[in-house]
């Protein structure tokens, strides 16, 4: 039952486009979606946003808890039965194998309230250190680099509208034209000035925005961005384009960085990245022109084993140019999930407590414990990052019970065959979701939860701006909110501390818990957030009016200086390009969101992109006897993916692209490995060596050697 129009934001990505939900005029639909004027999306939405309300009425929704019966089938049961079973299994596992035998896997799509409560539930009600979340797959390298350089990590340290006056924007490994379509409105001025620089091994829809004088597309070999950035920094310094006054006044470490880039002369960079020297020089000079220059990174450069160092190199370049915290530009990373920013601030990360506090910091523990009404010593220490957590499923001294909130790990984690095997070894897998995702289908207990339009809450968008999610409609009977589920389980486990079921009071508690932390929300409240004319950028300490622009007066390190951290690149030896061996990069399509658990259930989106297609250059395809639309196999070791090919001139001949939105035999993550960045724990989703062959044997030529 709809009460009135709800001013809310999209359920999907971090742009958090503003929308209005109103009672539907169509038969069989509950809600209509309207774009709403807001500084980020200016009334625009993408296809996913426009169709988002269809999921409210989806016949595929789960509306009752499900549990395995004696034949192993998932069947509807009462909430009492399901929650008692979960609490009983958790208690047994704790008693027999210790608190760390129970783990929680969270998600960057959860509201701040749910993310906060989940972290508290893990530490207080379960007493486990084993909590991490899918943001580890998404934001962790850029976050680690930001913390290291600035002492603080907020995706964009400035409002998105600042880009509107930029004359140069360099985007590395980001395809906003598909991943955040209304974002491209903010690139208009830079395109007009011929200053949009897009670095992507594919001529992505974003790269095409540089056509017709809009700027420049740079097409390096996948994974060579670190070298590219070291090379650009080399040129900037060699040509005297750096801002020495800024470097001396606002940073430390320049000398070491200067030395570390000295051997990356342009010709050497060209030989490693494939980017011609003249283009390298043109980019360096353009970036130094100094009329509003922004450097932005996305998953394409971050989801690598050297992702933290690559983001660091992008930050170093921005600092050398004197951009960060100046009125003349900046550096940012584009947060991905709806609450990718807030989700990493309030305690879902294995090493963090609310307010972006370190779980190893005695003062932080004392403060948070006092808000939670428990002894600091009762809080567990740091856990392990997501990939390690998944590797420990069912292992000796590993995790035996896993609670999943907001992630479809058997589609989206690296090496999904290993993840599946780990889940099968568990004694208990509990999945909270709206749909029976591929992960839910493997669970012992599935708990149906409310969707975005059915709940109150807050989300923190890619600018670090806290937004209100407002309820437009009651959930179907049988569905419960995650806050209610956590409260019921905490009660059954005899937990200390309060677990409120009301989003507003959880938010008030979160604000207190975050007080004095880096991500301080203590000056915020639902009442304050309901006033759209007063935007709420964190840090927002009590009595302040928030912080739209960070770093203007100093960085968050004790000495207020930014750190330039010298990073090293390893010389690259590309895979031998013969017998169908190519580099696989994975990523996104406009129509689907993440593991596809939601968007594959929207008929219009599924019809537009019903299956995964491997994008391949026609020249490579011809050598291998692959036709447009023909079936191909991609393999790595024992693992293989079967899908159709799509011939495209937009990709390098040595590279193929596969979206990761599909499950089963089309799942790109059958091929990715559990290789992670040593600093952030981020998996290498963007570079895997695979062998491809045509499954359409009739068209395979006799000799396939390149
Ligand atoms: N439609 C849609 N939108 C989304 C999402 C979605 O699933 N679907 N997810 C949201 C989330 S969680 C995220 S994290 C963001 C991600 O947003 P993006 O970072 O824009 O998305 P990706 O497609 O993963 O990667 C971007 C680009 O990186 C390129 N790339 C791959 N390897 C390399 C490399 O080695 N170097 C360089 N320079 N580029 C490379 C790819 O070709 C791709 O075009 O999108 C958000 N928005
Ligand atoms: N190969 C490859 N793999 C990748 C990437 C890549 O580029 N390439 N990108 C990675 C990135 S950046 C990300 S962010 C991950 C994302 O991948 P996932 O973590 O799998 O994210 P989603 O598909 O959004 O899964 C969210 C699930 O939770 C449900 N859900 C949504 N909101 C809520 C909620 O509020 N509560 C609960 N309980 N459930 C909810 C949805 O229905 C869905 O089933 O994938 C990563 N995997
Ligand atoms: S760009 Fe992102 S937030 Fe905006 S409508 Fe599309 S999915 Fe939703
Ligand atoms: Mo992401």
From TrEMBL:
InterPro entries: Asp_de-COase-like_dom_sf (IPR009010), MoPterin_dinucl-bd_dom (IPR006657), Mopterin_OxRdtase (IPR006656), Mopterin_OxRdtase_4Fe-4S_dom (IPR006963), Prok_molybdopt-oxidoreductase (IPR050123). Keywords: 4Fe-4S, Iron, Iron-sulfur, Metal-binding. It comes from the Bacteria. GO terms for cellular component: membrane. The lineage of its organism: Bacteria, Bacillati, Actinomycetota, Actinomycetes, Micrococcales. The keyword Ligase does not apply. GO terms for biological process: respiratory electron transport chain. This is Assimilatory nitrate reductase (NADH) alpha subunit apoprotein. Residues 3-60 form the 4Fe-4S Mo/W bis-MGD-type domain. Pfam families: Molybdop_Fe4S4, Molybdopterin, Molydop_binding. CDD domains: MopB_CT_Fdh-Nap-like (cd00508). GO terms for molecular function: 4 iron, 4 sulfur cluster binding; metal ion binding; molybdopterin cofactor binding; NADH dehydrogenase activity. SMART domains: Molybdop_Fe4S4.
């Amino acid at each position: 039952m709809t009460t009135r129009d709800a001013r809310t934001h999209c359920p999907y990505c971090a742009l958090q486009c503003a929308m209005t939900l109103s009672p539907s005029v169509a038969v069989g639909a509950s809600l209509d979606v309207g774009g709403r004027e807001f500084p980020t999306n200016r009334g625009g939405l993408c296809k996913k946003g426009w169709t988002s309300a269809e999921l409210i009425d989806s016949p595929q929704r789960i509306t009752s808890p499900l549990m395995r019966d004696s034949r192993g089938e998932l069947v509807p049961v009462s909430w009492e039965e399901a929650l008692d079973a979960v609490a009983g299994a958790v208690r047994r596992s704790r008693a027999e194998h210790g608190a760390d035998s129970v783990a929680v896997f969270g998600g960057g799509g959860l509201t701040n309230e749910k993310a906060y409560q989940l972290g508290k539930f893990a530490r207080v009600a379960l007493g486990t250190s084993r909590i991490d979340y899918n943001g580890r797959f998404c934001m962790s390298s850029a976050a680690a680099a930001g913390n290291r350089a600035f002492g603080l990590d907020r995706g964009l340290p400035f409002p998105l509208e600042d880009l509107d006056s930029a004359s140069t924007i360099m985007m590395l490994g980001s395809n906003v034209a598909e991943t955040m379509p209304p974002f491209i409105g903010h690139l208009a001025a830079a395109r007009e000035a011929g200053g949009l620089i897009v670095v992507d091994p594919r001529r992505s829809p974003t790269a095409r925005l540089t056509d017709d004088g809009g700027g420049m597309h740079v097409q390096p070999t996948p994974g060579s961005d670190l070298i590219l950035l070291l090379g650009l920094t080399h040129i900037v310094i060699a040509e005297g384009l750096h801002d020495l006054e800024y470097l001396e006044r606002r940073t430390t470490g320049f000398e070491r960085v200067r030395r570390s880039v000295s051997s990356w002369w342009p010709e050497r960079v060209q030989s490693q990245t494939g980017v011609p020297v003249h283009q390298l020089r043109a980019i360096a000079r353009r970036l130094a022109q100094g009329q509003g220059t922004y450097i932005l990174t996305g998953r394409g450069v971050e989801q690598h084993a050297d992702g933290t160092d690559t983001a660091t190199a992008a930050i170093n370049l921005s600092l050398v140019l004197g951009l960060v915290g100046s009125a003349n530009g900046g550096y940012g990373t584009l947060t991905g999930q709806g609450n990718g920013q807030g989700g990493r601030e309030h305690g879902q990360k294995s090493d963090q407590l609310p307010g972006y506090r370190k779980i190893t910091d005695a003062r932080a523990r004392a403060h948070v414990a006092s808000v939670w009404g428990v002894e600091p010593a009762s809080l567990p220490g740091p856990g392990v990052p997501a990939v390690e957590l998944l590797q420990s499923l069912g292992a000796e001294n590993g995790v035996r019970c896993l609670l999943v909130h907001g992630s479809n790990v058997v589609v989206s984690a690296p090496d999904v065959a290993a993840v599946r095997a780990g889940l099968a070894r568990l004694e208990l897998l509990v999945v909270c979701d709206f749909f029976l995702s591929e992960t839910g289908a493997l669970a012992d207990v599935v708990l149906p939860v409310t969707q975005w339009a059915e709940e109150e809450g807050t989300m923190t968008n890619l600018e670090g701006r806290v937004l209100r999610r407002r309820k437009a409609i009651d959930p179907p009977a049988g569905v419960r909110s995650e806050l209610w589920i956590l409260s019921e389980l905490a009660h059954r486990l005899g937990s200390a501390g309060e677990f409120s079921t009301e989003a507003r009071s959880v938010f008030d508690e979160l604000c207190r818990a975050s007080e004095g932390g880096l991500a301080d929300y203590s000056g915020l409240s639902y009442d304050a957030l309901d006033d759209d004319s007063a935007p709420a950028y964190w840090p927002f300490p009590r009595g302040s009016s928030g912080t739209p622009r960070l770093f203007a007066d100093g960085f968050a390190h004790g000495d207020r200086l930014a750190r330039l951290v010298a990073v090293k690149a390893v010389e690259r030896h590309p895979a031998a390009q013969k017998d169908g061996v190519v580099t696989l990069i994975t990523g996104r399509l406009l129509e689907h969101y993440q593991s596809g658990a939601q968007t594959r259930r929207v008929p219009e989106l599924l019809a537009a992109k019903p299956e995964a297609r491997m994008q391949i250059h026609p020249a490579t395809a011809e050598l291998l006897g692959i036709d447009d639309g023909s079936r191909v196999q991609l393999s790595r070791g024992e693992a293989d993916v079967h899908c159709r090919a799509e011939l495209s001139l937009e990709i390098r001949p040595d590279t193929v692209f596969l979206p990761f939105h599909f499950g089963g035999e089309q799942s790109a993550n059958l091929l990715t490995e559990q290789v992670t960045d040593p600093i952030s724990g981020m998996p290498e989703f963007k570079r895997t060596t695979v062998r491809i062959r045509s499954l359409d044997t009739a068209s395979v030529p006799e000799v396939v050697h390149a």
